[in-house]
Amino acid sequence: MHWCPRFHEAYGALGGTLEYAAFEAVFKRSDAALAALPGIRTLGFRATIEAQARALAGLLPRGGAVDPESLAERLHADSVATIERNRPVLGRLAARFRLAVVSNFTGNLEPCLEELHLRALFGAVLDSGVLGFAKPDERIFLRALSCLGARAPDAWMVGDNPDADLRPAQHLGMRTAWVAPPARPGPSDFAPTRRIARLPELEAVLG
Q: Nearest CA to 84 among 118, 43, 49?
């Protein structure tokens, strides 16, 4: 699930009343505020969630606001639970393959991964906020391949966004694994190499 629907789910659980479409417009503004935050590149994972929750709370209409500390706490707890559930999978993959993270982020992906004790699993971390170009720009995928010393036909791109993650990678000759719930409609103009519902299924795909 993307960050915006996750924030909206937590927001609703805390009594927030905005419908998703209105919330999404506010969330995009909070994304921009977070990226422009002084010192953003030094923030770890928990501090980043707290900063976004505060930015979001300041932008929500008064009648639809919720406590930013409660919002951040809920998001952080859910995120850490997801990470811990998938940590063994990532560990096993890292023992067999060279891994990279390719992310549209705010320039502080490295400290976030360090805080979560995930950085050591990845041979390269490509953060759009540091590089100055973002997915679906093919340069970010080419940089990842270069950092890993890998050829496109030998690499897989695993992602949840067909437009940003999969289409550009597949155009470069990479194989792709789309992580999506079974009910989500697929892209109409191309077919990912494989489709999986949960990250642990990737191990069987890679053999």
A: 118
